[in-house]
Amino acid sequence: MYGDGDGWSAGPGGTKRWGKYGAAGLFLLAEDSTTVLMQHRAYWTASGGKWGIPGGARDSHETAVDAALREAVEETGISTVPVQVLGTAVTAGPFPADPARAELSGNWTYTTVVAKAPAQLDVVPDEESLELRWVPLGELHTLDLLPALVEALPVIHEILGISN
């Protein structure tokens, strides 16, 4: 059911993670220019003010790829027709349920979906974005990135066949 994944899950150390069934994001590389579609997250969102990739909560019926593509369409307005998925990796979690917080789901994971497009696609930011920008892959380190994305970059580079 659409939207049934909206809600919190238990995270490590008493934290919470968005997505009752986990979450997924799209690391979209423009094939002809080696740029990545990055999202400067609105301040009211989880990890607001940081740069990351479009993504969000998975619904109960969705695969990680389905969720990442849906979220990218919602947050950037891209067409996913020309997008080719190269690989996926669970880049955070799973985090078990917390018996002390039974109202929160457990087994949360974040899946990064790595894909390419034939060129930089046109984007239109939604209310969850301060800005969307195609950033050269070699310049990602100049942005104030989400810590989880920084941790995921070696796995993403591996999927892309890039040595660190």
TrEMBL record:
Record InterPro entries: NUDIX_hydrolase-like_dom_sf (IPR015797), NUDIX_hydrolase_CS (IPR020084), NUDIX_hydrolase_dom (IPR000086)
**Signal sequence span per UniProt?**
none
Q: Which organism is it from?
A: Corynebacterium kalinowskii
- Asked if the Swiss-Prot or TrEMBL record annotates the protein with the keyword Ligase, the reply is no
What keywords are assigned to this protein? Hydrolase, Nucleotidyltransferase, Transferase
UniProt key word Hydrolase: yes
The Swiss-Prot or TrEMBL record annotates one GO molecular function as: nucleotidyltransferase activity
Protein name (database record): Bifunctional nicotinamide mononucleotide adenylyltransferase/ADP-ribose pyrophosphatase
Could you tell me which SUPFAM superfamilies the record lists for this protein? Answer: Nudix (SSF55811)
- Tell me the ranges covered by the Nudix hydrolase domain, including all copies: 19-157
Q: Which PROSITE patterns match?
A: NUDIX, NUDIX_BOX
List cofactor names only: Mg(2+)
